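Handout, section 4.2: multi-component inputs.
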Amino acid sequence: MTSSDLGRLWAVVPAGGAGTRLWPLSRARSPKFLLDLTGTGRTLIQATVDRLEPLVGDRVLVVTGSAHEQAVRRQLPPGTRVLAEPSPRDSMAAIGLAAAQLERDDPEALIGSFAADHLITDQAAFAASVREAAAVAAQGYLVTIGIDPTSPATGFGYIRASNPLPGFDTALTVAEFVEKPDDARAREYVASGEYRWNAGMFIVRASVLLDLLAEQHPDLAEGLRAIAADPSSLEAHWPGLTRIAIDHAVAEPAAAQGRVAVVPGRFDWEDVGDFASLAALTRPKEDGMRILGDESLVLTADASGLVVPAAGRTVAVVGLDDVVVVDTGDALLVTSYQKAQGVKAVVDELRRRGRTDLT
Amino acid sequence: MTSSDLGRLWAVVPAGGAGTRLWPLSRARSPKFLLDLTGTGRTLIQATVDRLEPLVGDRVLVVTGSAHEQAVRRQLPPGTRVLAEPSPRDSMAAIGLAAAQLERDDPEALIGSFAADHLITDQAAFAASVREAAAVAAQGYLVTIGIDPTSPATGFGYIRASNPLPGFDTALTVAEFVEKPDDARAREYVASGEYRWNAGMFIVRASVLLDLLAEQHPDLAEGLRAIAADPSSLEAHWPGLTRIAIDHAVAEPAAAQGRVAVVPGRFDWEDVGDFASLAALTRPKEDGMRILGDESLVLTADASGLVVPAAGRTVAVVGLDDVVVVDTGDALLVTSYQKAQGVKAVVDELRRRGRTDLT
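Output:
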């Protein structure tokens, strides 16, 4: 690694997704990346940019939906570059648009994509992984950071590594990306020691990413580069771009060609994907209840779980275990860790009823 | 029975008790008898008086705490007699005070005591029982209406009957009153066919009640009659009156003397003592959820129980069975039918914290 690798690295922060699984905390108009879900006083996107700043300074490019552009700008330091997508076109278009602009400005630019709504607390270990990943990316690889799994989670895709990459401390070549496994398979993956969680972090030279894309989806690569060359053509090109995730568009085909490396991520990582994951971030009180917010508002008796007293009202929970109570000004959710994924049905029903004020 | 028996009957409605077990619906300042807990548009005390009106016309005397006197007057027809107790002195003093006033005005007056917070829907069967009870009471008995049990409930006392009372359709002499049983004993009681629920309904000539009381607690009977003779002495006498329930003060001793009769109550009866009892009054939707209030506010997925959306907010319940969610403007309770009695601990804790605004 040379210091110039990191000096050329831009952090690309895709900030999308409604976070339906965290409703009613997270809404279409205030998705989870705009929320302080940890009670630290920083929203997830602010914490993401805070974490990247020691690595990239102000070389941060956020890609978000046009509906959230102003909110993102308000939360981030003045001058932060923000690209607004006219409509959702999945992660390849979002990251690719950033890559095309950065490639245009600096043909040697490296990009690292880091979702706006993930949490990492071990800054030093994160930084070490990104530094090594940038060095590997400078050699022309598409590099991902694979999180050392702490449990056989079924909510993430996995990355299977093969051989160490000569010349680097920890990097390995990637044998394959695999989809979210069932429980038995997840246990096998973790037991084998060969698999790591796919956290959606990709570090790559911008031009390499677009060239890989051009091999698989030439129209998409061409469209993105055309927009970069003439930003005024964004509205014209955007609706025609292929909707595809970056994993499918480039990472999986490139892995099959031996062109992908993984740097093990030996740090805590949370995608805050559901209430159980949110609860895990919140320290339990003596009685086992976790409270995200003003603890003085919550009274419990013979109960455990997560309470979010976001409406300022007193919340009493009696005789329920692993319960989830999310109290907001206009909507209340009561569920359990185990059944919380069912909240999507509620959000769908509210949309069906035209209650977009609540979703 | 002669028509004059009913013509001399006054309904005495003791309206007391905070209904802590229904918190946060029921509060010290708005106890359950002041609330519309059935969604019919009538509060429990209004429904009680509605039910009595065909039997006694405007001969209704409510006894309540001074804190609730104005609220009671606002809810009942103008001119309804309301006695305000300076402080709680249990049911014997409350009913005895009413009896002493009515005895003073008419030495032959009958009284029937009917709690302000019970529910009965079968008006015809209720009226038939009261008519027979009044006729038996006119013969000098202390008469109770014993509810035919529909389950081996452990939350009520029971009345054991012995022989039919000659000359009446259904009345029996009472062998004994028994305290709330444990589950096994309750099953024995119900299986025997000899036991009925004690719903606290007593029909008796006012003078008989006070004379029975004078045998057991002469000071209390004397105090109550002194207040009736000089209402301005209420404040002076009241604090010295014995605190005792009418069951212990007169019903149990009189039963031992063969002076108590029971008229079987062949009607539905609910004391709305907890959330399970409240739920039983609410018709379940197709999915098993019961909603007391605006159904359009409640969304459920794979859930059953009771939701009271009294704050006007949307309430979503996902993946929980027999859950109780009570949403009010300043306090939210989440519990289950099985554990709902634990709400008392929450109310106690709020009082300990000085949050009487919430209790």
